Amino acid sequence: MSRILSAVAWPYANGPRHIGHVAGFGVPSDVFSRYMRLAGNDVLMVSGTDEHGTPILVQAEGEGVSPQELADRYNRVIVEDLTQLGLSYDLFTRTTTGNHYAVAQAMFKAVHANGYMLSETTRGAISPSTGRTLPDRYIEGTCPICGYDGARGDQCDNCGNQLDAIDLKNPVSRINGETPKFVETEHFFLDLPALVQPLTDWLGSRQGWRPNVMNFSKNLLVDVRPRAMTRDIDWGIPVPLEGWEDNPAKRLYVWFDAVIGYLSASIEWARRSGDPDAWRQWWNDPSALSYYFMGKDNITFHSQIWPGELIAANGRGARGGSLSEFGDLQLPTEVVSSEFLTMESAKFSSSRGHVIYVRDMLSRYQPDALRYFIAVAGPETSDADFTWSEFKRRNNDELVAGWGNLVNRTASLLHKNVGEIPALGELADVDRAALAASEAAFTTVGGHIRTQRQRAAISETMRVIGDANKYLADTAPWKLKNEDPQRMRTVLAVAAQLVSDANTMMSPFLPHSAQKVHEALGGTGVLAPMPQMNEVADLDLADRHYPVIQGDYTSVAGWGRTDLVAGTAVPAPSPIFQKLDDEMVEAELERMADE
Predict the structure, then answer these.
(1) What is the pLDDT of residues 349-404, one digit of tens each?
(2) Kindly report the CA angle at 134 between 109 and 97, in degrees rounded to 5?
(3) Rounded Cα gap, residues 311 and 291, in angstroms
(4) pTM higher than the cut 0.90
(5) Is 349 helix (H, G, I), strand (E, B) or coil?
(6) CB-based contacts of 478: which residues, under 8 Å, 6+ apart?
(7) Which residues contact 432 (CB under 8 A, 6 or more apart)?
(8) SS3 of 294, please?
(9) Mind spelling out the 3-state secondary structure of 416-463?
């Protein structure tokens, strides 16, 4: 058994999340975590809503509410949606908790005490018309490095380079289009040049990463400069140093505190579990493994900024230092980044109505239909396109006609002809071959999931399902009821075992339907534990409550064959998946056009 930290990107709480978001961070992390639990590992899956930074501040001002009120609203929406999707978090929390503030400030002080936070006077942008600070993320212009028109003041999404707003060519405010004015301001910078060697050594020791992630990460270390970790903004975590903490216009950079959320969420989980130090088993033990899941636009913060913060807190950069109060914090085992999902050949855009939010999707379609599409056709290593016609085809031709058909045919034959799981009689060669091939597939499918090849894993599982359907067609048990009833019982026993095997392999991908398949074969108890949304009190702030996602996932079976028990009653089956009609594609396209 290994301890596995499944660290999932924090969705930003300025609106509901769309299906492109959960294709990047949500479903892949849940598939991996569910598989790892089945394989006997002790998994800690954590995340929460990211609630600081400029976008929330600007949107709240526009709506006439406080940033906290806006964050509260969308935190609840996101928690509801991710729970319904079945993402099995041990704790999904938020960055506006007292616990997170304390952990983020302690990390800042540790990095600063070790000498890796440099105070520098730089030039920041203000709005000429209002005199207010204009955060660099809200300035756009032409990248001075690659010439991309649309680079932000903190980073160019085209070439991935860190930028300063003052370096942009033709900079303009994204808020009102005016040209910003630059004035002197003091900030703390993470001394990345003093951390570049241990970062290089760490990346050089990583194996099995997706090539696009590794190449991008290594390129980040080619020309490294200190990066600002504070901002001129009044919404966020105060800078915990004398002369700074009472300054109402200086806060920690949202990306400094957001990645610390993985640690603070683990600590909050431990505190809520009754063992406040339990988190250390995943963070201080060198044998523990940690996997970070996100979309490709967040690689920089997970393969450079967060490991840099960890190295600095451990005192292992060029300036030396001592361990922080958090002990020897382990660096990521792997940064698992997906590419982008587009929709009907265009980028998702809430402002233009070219979007489908998770809750709207789940209000009309089964959660596992969406999870299946993401798993089998999502943006694993290259951009992928979601189209309604392809969603319908995958659902009807693969889920309904393939997997659902196998389950319902087998359960129906068992219910009508035997009424229970029959005992295996004398096996023919075709039976032994089918059972052996199915059992061997656990190794193949599990290996694919373990190495972040989920599309290959679910494709292999669908191949196993296809072979099981062929076995039923070739043995034709419906023809044997009168001429050889014992042979019919053996064939149905084999078919039931093949369905059970396939269901275990499919359960990380499709946990909702996995439970239904389990029950269709007469199974009792919980096969695929589901998350729960719970209201909790803040551990440190009086009279404050918020929703979290939690769950007890200890009841999972093992990854491998579970022999069915002869004599188990098999009920009359009902369809597992819903077939989509021909009109749904046109209806969805019309809905998009009207929004």
Answers:
(1) 887 889 999 999 999 999 999 999 999 999 999 999 999 999 999 999 999 999 99
(2) 40
(3) 17
(4) yes
(5) strand
(6) 413, 417
(7) none
(8) strand
(9) HHCCECCCCCCCCHHHHHHHHHHHHHHHHHHHHHHCCCHHHHHHHHHH
